[in-house]
């Protein structure tokens, strides 16, 4: 998807820098095209300066890195041209209070995210994100090691939220959904999940989950059951029915990145069916099966992250365990149901490429669409 940032100020410029560093292509727009061009020139080939009109017409995702009143003007000006777009609101409407501090320019109990949701053109989706941290921290905390800092977001539209979560990851943060847009005030200035609120700093996922409603034992069991079902269903036959059962373990917007004999990301139901077919063409079912190793689950609210081990056992010749690796998962709960929204598989260095290479070489011949 094409991402545009309207606004080349403190937030827009820092976010553009982070996204470009994460490999994203971005369009940069501002009412003063010169400022957008200067920023694009400083970021290299992945950044392109465009007019605001071009950003609206070309982008699928538009980050409105401008003041709240300007965002209102843009929504009114472009109206129906925003249909089908994902709009991202990082706004924090504040002004100096005259005593060295700041005060909200809207009501203390009002949320800019909810205010904008009420002005949204028909067919557009709004996600609250990228405003939980100050501009300086947005730069300093990106790609923090060894534990990434969290980027909170709120969304009513699940698909839009998943898309923005991927941008949060590309910007160097762990995405954590706090709920729908009615929770936006929590991640706006002075909110309990804002840097200039109760948190007081950038936090990692463990610290973030500690201030969200805790996972119950039932939540944890359901997530673990999903792990075991994944291994069972990937070992089923290559029929369409089996592929459908496997894909049902994921939300429709899910992405699965595989690092084994190749690196590839599979998106959505059709992509996951291709992954299923790829697995069965490279690893013949009569020769192999999966097992679950150790696992760790942490989470809060409607979000969870899971690290767990997988093993491939090769039946032929009593080879035993021939390969192993780790899944890094992000789960999301919708209407009481937990499913995977993002999964990354990393192979251990013991991967016996020679054992599997004959099947990889014959993949086109062996490949059968489920």
Which secondary structure elements does this structure contain, and how are they paired or packed?
Elements: E1 3-6, H1 10-21, E2 26-29, H2 33-43, E3 47-50, H3 52-58, E4 61-64, H4 68-78, E5 86-89, E6 94-96, E7 102-104, H5 112-117, E8 125-129, H6 135-140, E9 150-155, H7 158-170, E10 174-179, H8 205-209, H9 217-234, H10 240-247, E11 250-259, E12 263-267, H11 268-282, E13 288-300, E14 303-314, E15 320-334, E16 337-347, H12 353-361, H13 363-366
Helix pairs in contact: 9-10, 10-11
- Identify the strand order in the major beta sheet: 3-2-1-4-5-8-9-10
Average pLDDT confidence is: 93
Q: What is the count of β-strands? A: 16
Largest sheet: 8 strands, mixed
Supply the helix-strand structural class: alpha/beta
Question: CA-to-CA gap between the ends?
Answer: 27 Å
Determine the fraction of residues in helical runs and give it as a percent range. Answer: 25-40%
Secondary-structure element order, as H and E? Answer: EHEHEHEHEEEHEHEHEHHHEEHEEEEHH
Cα shape? globular
Specify Rg, calculated over alpha carbons.
22 Å
Polypeptide structure, described:
- With 370 residues, the protein is α/β, with parallel strands linked by helices.
- The chain has 13 helices and 16 strands.
- It has helices spanning 10-21, 33-43, 52-58, 68-78, 112-117, 135-140, 158-170, 205-209, 217-234, 240-247, 268-282, 353-361, 363-366; strands at 3-6, 26-29, 47-50, 61-64, 86-89, 94-96, 102-104, 125-129, 150-155, 174-179, 250-259, 263-267, 288-300, 303-314, 320-334, 337-347.
- Helix 9 (217-234) runs antiparallel to helix 10 and helix 10 packs across helix 11.
- The protein is globular.
- The two termini are 27 Å apart.
- The mean pLDDT is 93.
């Amino acid at each position: 998807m094409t991402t545009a940032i309207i606004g080349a100020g403190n937030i827009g410029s820092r976010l553009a820098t982070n996204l470009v560093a994460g490999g994203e292509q971005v369009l940069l727009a501002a009412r003063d095209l010169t400022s957008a061009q200067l920023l694009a020139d400083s970021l290299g080939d992945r950044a392109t300066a465009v007019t605001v009109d071009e950003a609206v017409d070309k982008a699928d995702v538009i980050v409105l890195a401008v003041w709240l009143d300007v965002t209102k003007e843009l929504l009114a000006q472009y109206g129906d041209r925003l249909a089908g777009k994902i709009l991202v609101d990082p706004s924090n409407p504040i002004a100096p209070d005259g005593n060295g501090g700041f005060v909200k320019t809207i009501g203390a109990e009002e949320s800019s995210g909810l205010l904008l949701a009420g002005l949204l053109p028909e067919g557009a989706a709004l996600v609250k994100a990228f405003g939980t941290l100050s501009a300086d921290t947005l730069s300093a905390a990106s790609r923090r090691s060894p534990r990434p800092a969290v980027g909170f977001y709120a969304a009513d539209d699940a698909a839009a939220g998943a898309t923005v979560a991927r941008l949060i990851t590309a910007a160097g943060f762990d995405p954590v959904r706090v709920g729908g847009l009615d929770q936006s005030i929590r991640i706006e200035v002075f909110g309990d999940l804002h840097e200039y609120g109760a948190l007081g700093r950038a936090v990692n996922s463990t610290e973030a989950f500690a201030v969200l409603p805790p996972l119950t034992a039932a939540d944890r069991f359901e997530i673990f059951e999903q792990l075991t079902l994944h291994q069972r269903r990937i070992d089923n036959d290559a029929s369409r029915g089996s592929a459908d059962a496997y894909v049902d373990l994921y939300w429709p917007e899910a992405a699965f990145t595989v690092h084994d004999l190749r690196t590839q990301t599979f998106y959505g139901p059709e992509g996951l069916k291709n992954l299923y077919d790829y697995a069965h063409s490279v690893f013949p079912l009569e020769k192999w099966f999966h097992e679950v190793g150790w696992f760790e689950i942490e989470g809060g609210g409607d979000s969870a992250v899971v690290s767990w081990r997988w093993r491939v056992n090769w039946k032929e010749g009593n080879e035993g365990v021939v390969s192993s690796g780790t899944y890094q998962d992000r789960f999301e709960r919708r209407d009481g149901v937990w499913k995977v929204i993002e999964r990354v598989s990393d192979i251990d260095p013991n991967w016996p490429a020679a054992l599997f290479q004959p099947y990889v070489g014959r993949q086109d011949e062996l490949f059968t669409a489920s």
